Amino acid sequence: MADENVDVSNIDPSEPRAALDMFHVSLGQPQPSDPELVAQVTECDVEPLSGPCSFFCNMCNAMNATKRCGACGAVVYCSASCQREAWHVHKQFCKRIRASTKLTRKLAVPLRNYSQMGEPARNAFEYDIGDFWGLHDPRPYCRARADLAFHLKDSSDAENNPLAAELAIQHFRQLMILSKGDNQGVRDFVPTMLIDLGRYQEAYDFIRYWIIGFSESYDDEQTTGHDMAEDLEVLKFSEYGPNSFIFALALLKYVMYARTRAAEMLIMRHPKVNPDIAKYAMTFAVPETWSRAGSQTLEVQLKQVLSALLVSNKHLLKMLVEAEKHRERPVGPYSLGDESEAWYLISSNLVPWLKAAGAREYVRRFLADDLRVPIPISEAEKKRRAMEKAKLLNKSFARSMRSKRDDRTGRL
Questions:
Q1: Where is the MYND-type domain positioned along the sequence (predicted)?
Q2: CA 267 → CA 64, 117, 196, 407, distances in Å?
């Protein structure tokens, strides 16, 4: 309780710490963030997911290209001549990436010596990991870094630039660490980018984490290395969302099915191949969990995911098949389940769908032939729905009884 004898006439409103000290209010000392999280975060510069290794030349596809663009560092070439030849396409992305990088670095500087409400100054990158969005002052930095990641993603999509994609994913991941609630929604862009890069296990683990976390508390300590062909019930799967991850899961399931089926057609069903040798060869063609499940099981799972999308947003698959008709449609705020959400998801993830050979044609056949299948529902979801149904029945019964009582009262 404040001291009644305190003279408040001399308190400087610009010095909240002095006021707190006068009333004997202590905010305590800021506590350092988890060292493991601090080690995962940088202010701006990131390394590719693959580490400091070489890539294919972005112009001629020559192997072991190591000459990164000196201005943006987001594209790699094998020679200066390839860089000059590609400049007319790359320059627009290079300019945006360079400007966003400069702004992000500038906005990171004051956060190294950050103070709020008169607290002792500290480095926000060491003491406030996970709370950046909640502190308000770091929000411009978060927005600038998200813009940088989106410019890298644009370069990846337009220039078929895997290095830019890897850098964008790293920025998205660090933004999710800096603001643990992912208030900017950057998680929606990560899984399809991972699929496009061929990092299927990482994509599935990411999707699995967010689908389960969306439905209820996620307490599985092991968040990596899960069976990509596991039953969808394990995901606590529901046709009510989150649509961004179910949409990404549909693409992943298609890639799994298509590659496994192609390998089976080539190896397993060849009349002159010994069955045991064929099974052994399959382990080199596709991941073991895919070959063990088989293309038939994977196709059933693919149809289950597509069926769920038809329930959660009836516009999504049709607009995916007809994406060319909507190219001029603006992307903005959206409502769950309507066309605005469908176009937001498609416009954000269209390039990986286009690169997956036959993916949209499969969806077109799925819609034309009405190949919907029952959606797997977990036991927890079944219990929840049963409880909701019981509540509705109880409410309906109570309303009926009140109506009968009112009728009797009126007659009397």
A1: 57-94
A2: 31, 67, 25, 76
